[in-house]
Amino acid sequence: MSELFRNPEQDKEDARKVAAIQRENRLNLKGLLLTLAIVIAPFLALLISVELALAALAAGLLFCAVLTWTVAGQMGPGSRSRLRTAAVLNAFVLLMVVAILVMRLVGN
Length: 108
Known about the structure:
This protein is an all-alpha fold. It has helices at 8-46, 50-72, 77-107.
């Protein structure tokens, strides 16, 4: 009886939607883990030395600034300006971190 109500095309469409949701969930998990690694790396490096922590922070800020600027080009006009502003702020903080790192390395 249940075969009478089955729609093979709808089943295929449902399977495609489920696969798309699963792909999106995997991408979200990868993004979350990458963000977590960027946030935790400077603190772990701080256990070794301040200079290493500053270098890890600079690497994370550089990655975030470049990624944000790249993604901004693919967004609509409203989001684009906010993302580019965030990328510029990340770059500004990156310059400050690099300046502090250089001062610490030259001072030693």
